[in-house]
Design a protein that fits this description.
elongated; 4 strands; 5 helices; two-stranded antiparallel ribbon; mainly alpha
Length: about 170
C-alpha cells in the first residue's frame, strides 16, 4: 500500500521562542519548491513560529468585524430589536468566533486579548444604543456579559479541570 502525500498542502514550520537565535536549518523542499512558512492555519487556529498568537487574533478580529458589519442593520438606532435579543445575537453569533480554542492561546499577550475586548465592547455599545460616554465596565455589568479576559480565563479553567478529571 502506497501513501500519497499532497505536496501543495504540506508546509514546514520551525517553532522558536521570540527573540531567540537558532541555527537556521536547511530549507525543506518538495519537488523543487520551498515549503517553509512563518505561520500556518490548522483547524481554524493560526500558529506562528514564535507563538505570539498575533496572526490568529488578527484573523479572529477580521472575521468578527465582518460578522458585526452584517449585523449592523439589526443593531442601529432605527431597529426594533430588543436589547435582550441584541445581546443574544452577540452570545450566539459573535462570541463563539472570538473564544474558539482560547485554552490553546492562553499564553497570548494581554495586548492581543485587549484587541478582542475592544470588539466586544463596540458590539455591546451598539446593542442597547448606549451613548459613547457610558463606561465599558458599566455596560458589561448591565447586560450581564463578562469582560473578554474574564471569560477566556473561566473557559480555560473549565478546560483544565476537565483534563484533570480524565
Amino acid at each position: 500500500m502506497k501513501i500519497v502525500i499532497n505536496v501543495s498542502k504540506c508546509t514546514a514550520i520551525i517553532f522558536a521562542r521570540a527573540g531567540r537565535r537558532f541555527i537556521q536549518p536547511l530549507p525543506v523542499t518538495s519537488r523543487g519548491t520551498n515549503r517553509m512558512c512563518r505561520h500556518h492555519s490548522l483547524s481554524g487556529v493560526t500558529l506562528d513560529k514564535a507563538f505570539t498568537w498575533s496572526p490568529h487574533i488578527d484573523q479572529v478580529r477580521k472575521k468578527t468585524a465582518q460578522r458585526m458589519g452584517m449585523l449592523g442593520p439589526l443593531l442601529n438606532s432605527k431597529s426594533d430589536l430588543s436589547i435582550r435579543n441584541g445581546v443574544l445575537l452577540y452570545k450566539k453569533l459573535i462570541r463563539p468566533m472570538m473564544d474558539y480554542s482560547c485554552p490553546a492561546w492562553r499564553s497570548a499577550a494581554r495586548s492581543h486579548v485587549r484587541r478582542l475586548q475592544e470588539l466586544q465592547s463596540k458590539f455591546l455599545l451598539l446593542a442597547p444604543g448606549a451613548p459613547w460616554y457610558v463606561s465599558n465596565r458599566q455596560i458589561h455589568e448591565d447586560l450581564g456579559v463578562p469582560l473578554f479576559a474574564d471569560l477566556t480565563r473561566a473557559l480555560t479553567e473549565s478546560f483544565d479541570s476537565k483534563l484533570a478529571n480524565l
